[in-house]
Design brief:
24% of the residues lie in helices and 15% in strands. The protein has helices at 8-12, 48-54, 109-117, 134-144, 163-175, 216-219, 246-267; strands spanning 99-103, 123-128, 150-156, 182-187, 198-202, 206-210, 239-243, 290-292, 299-301.
């Protein structure tokens, strides 16, 4: 007589229906249906104190920085909100309501950027070539770890050695920023040149773009209250435009997403040359009383 084969569950140590109160208990392991590329849960739960200690929160927050005010937002933002950061503290009577150009070394561009970025509550699409500002970095890091804010951050590959770029890389590795709805990549342009964009779209309400890098000299960060100058003050020749025109915002946000996807694809090794042109696929004539259209590849019955 042939020996009775052992039950699969006995061989593999798997519980059967007889071992449990559930009669539909499977006798083989369930297959792993999880997606291999799905981001894992954060390795460490970030806290506000952790972010502030690791990413250089300023000892004294300026009035322009509203990151600690949960009610601050951009929902009623207009360009008039930024007049306080111009040298004149006001605009001309015929100034545009859709765009205003600010000048580093003349206007307070550093506080202007803090004013906008610290009030982001919905989304931030950012591509920044030069990223070397402690206070702006702290604002970005706190928002990056807020899952209610969708963020796309793109930085240039040639700048990856910078202190603040390293901080973002470290945060991405430690906290898995994708789990917080933040998507971060360091890369290049589609033709492997530097990613030289310097701008962002905040909450779909306001766009900023110009030659300004995020650094003390790039922004002309004031070292004395309310005006340029003072010991150690440095300012590059840079401009910062702020835009509320809906068409420009939509097109710029789309461009920022495109640049992010190009850098992300290259980082994953998926950026390839152009696909070859589509080939004409011959269609075999169907049996019976029918003919094939050479132009459409469809069958027409008589």
């Amino acid at each position: 007589m042939t020996p009775r084969k052992s039950h699969p569950s006995a061989k593999h140590g798997i519980k059967t229906a007889n071992d449990t109160k559930l009669p539909f208990e499977p006798i083989i392991p369930a297959p792993d249906l999880s997606e291999p590329d799905a981001p894992p849960l954060p390795a460490t739960k970030a806290t506000l104190a952790d972010v502030n200690s690791r990413y250089a929160a300023p000892k004294k927050t300026s009035a322009a920085n509203a990151i600690n005010d949960p009610a601050a937002n951009l929902q009623t933002f207009t360009l008039a909100d930024l007049a306080q950061f111009t040298k004149e503290k006001t605009y001309s009577n015929d100034a545009s309501k859709d765009v205003h150009l600010f000048f580093v070394g003349r206007d307070d561009v550093h506080d202007l950027l803090k004013y906008i970025l610290s009030r982001v509550s919905i989304s931030l699409y950012l591509n920044m070539f030069g990223f070397d500002d402690d206070e702006l970095n702290n604002i970005i890091m706190r928002q990056a770890l807020d899952p209610t804010i969708t963020m796309f951050i793109t930085l240039d590959q040639s700048q990856v050695g910078g202190v603040h770029e390293k901080a973002l890389v470290e945060a991405d590795q430690k906290y898995n920023l994708a789990a917080f709805n933040t998507h971060f990549v360091i890369g290049q342009s589609a033709t492997h040149q530097i990613s030289h964009t310097k701008g962002f779209v905040a909450d779909g309400k306001v766009a900023c773009e110009g030659s300004t890098n995020w650094s003390a000299s790039g922004e002309g960060t004031f070292v004395v209250t309310g005006q340029p100058g003072g010991a150690g003050y440095k300012a590059q020749n840079n401009t910062q435009s702020v835009i509320t025109d809906r068409d420009t915002i939509i097109r710029f946000q789309t461009e920022l997403i495109t640049e992010h996807m190009i850098a992300e694809s290259a980082a994953k090794g998926k950026l390839s040359e152009e696909l070859p042109p589509a080939q004409n696929i011959p269609v075999t004539k169907a049996p019976g009383n029918s003919q094939t259209s050479s132009e459409t590849g469809t069958h027409k019955a008589h």
